[in-house]
Amino acid sequence: xxxxxxxxxxxxxxxxxxxxxxxxxxxxxxxxxxxxxxxxxxxxxxxxxxxxxxxxxxxxxxxxxxxxxxxxxxxxxxxxxxxxxxxxxxxxxxxxxxxxxxxxxxxxxxxxxxxxxxxxxxxxxxxxxxxxxxxxxxxxxxxxxxxxxxxxxxxxxxxxxxxxxxxxxxxxxxxxxxxxxxxxxxxxxxxxxxxxxxxxx
Length: 201
Description:
Elements: E1 2-8, H1 16-29, E2 34-40, H2 51-57, H3 66-71, H4 73-84, E3 87-93, H5 101-110, E4 117-120, E5 123-126, E6 132-139, H6 155-164, E7 169-176, H7 182-198
């Protein structure tokens, strides 16, 4: 069984990133023996982490109290989805040069010491390995090149966070310039969908 995890985070209904990511998820899950799990952070937002979670995540498993275990239940559920997935698709629109806060909350829940990473003699070691990730990212301007590139904290952050926990096989599908008018947006969407079509199963 091959499992695909689709994570949606754009606050816009039927956003460009969601459209392309769903097309990709449908394509990958069409393979025989595949299953799709959708984590919709827009319609089912995660609460931001609090003190109880921050303390519990740094407590050894054999020292956790009942209340601390309860504080980790949601994180454990998200991690079970992540570890079970062979392919992870993250859909995100650019919000103020970065990712939506809902997606940042997700990252906070899944980057856990001793579970998704650990420190050894050679530094941090990611424990979420053997997975392919696709980042489907929409943004109003052009941030892959030109003067706005220095303000792109979207895919560089996601690549860093995923790489830190061991997900290093990452492909970016960007839909850029959608704020430059309907014609530009249409071309950007078509180009992104063409990239999806070109992915071999």
